[in-house]
């Protein structure tokens, strides 16, 4: 299934007139195959062996290109390092308090909250964010040892 998403993403790049360099391909592939919302730094570390000339800036530039055409989403959680999510369908995140891992989960979008916010405040609501926090299964196991 990730192969299909990869082909779709490549088609989107092509139709947006974005040149597909080997590095760009590798960054995209890493994002598509890792479901763990990596930071630019993590992507860089995973690929630097394959592309010795690549810099973190290159990774960032590629991520910007993907962001611009809507292939990825940027998740900022108040720290300096943004995480990147190649799952652009509506979903929520549960975040581990211990290791910072972010896991997708699906729940019907809370449209009523947005509607109520509009009614109560008169805002023209664009979107909302909801995050759930806890301890992931790995960290639960580590604690019990
Ligand atoms: Zn954890
Ligand atoms: Zn996600």
TrEMBL record:
Question: Does the keyword section mention Nucleotide-binding?
Answer: no
Q: Which GO terms describe its cellular component?
A: cytoplasm
This entry's comment on the bound cofactor is: Binds 1 zinc ion per subunit.
Cite the binding residues for Fe cation.
128
Q: What Gene Ontology biological process does one annotation of this record name? A: regulation of secondary metabolite biosynthetic process
Q: Which GO terms describe its molecular function?
A: DNA-binding transcription factor activity; transcription cis-regulatory region binding; zinc ion binding
Q: Which Pfam families match?
A: FUR
- Enumerate the residues binding Zn(2+): 96, 99, 136, 139
Write the protein's name. Peroxide operon regulator
Q: Which organism is it from?
A: Alkalibacillus haloalkaliphilus
Organism ancestry: Bacteria, Bacillati, Bacillota, Bacilli, Bacillales
Q: Which gene produces this protein?
A: perR
């Amino acid at each position: 299934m990730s192969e299909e998403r990869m082909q779709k993403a490549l088609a989107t790049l092509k139709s947006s007139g974005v040149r597909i360099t080997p590095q760009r391909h590798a960054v995209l592939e890493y994002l598509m195959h890792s479901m763990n919302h990596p930071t630019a730094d993590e992507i860089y570390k995973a690929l630097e062996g394959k592309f010795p000339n690549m810099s973190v800036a290159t990774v960032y530039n590629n991520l910007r290109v993907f962001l611009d055409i809507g292939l990825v989403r940027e998740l900022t959680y108040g720290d300096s390092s943004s995480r990147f999510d190649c799952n652009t369908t509506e979903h929520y995140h549960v975040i581990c308090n211990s290791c910072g891992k972010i896991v997708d989960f699906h729940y019907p979008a809370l449209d009523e909250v947005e509607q109520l916010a509009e009614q109560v405040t008169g805002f023209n609501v664009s979107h909302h964010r909801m995050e759930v926090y806890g301890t992931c299964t790995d960290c639960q196991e580590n604690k019990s040892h």
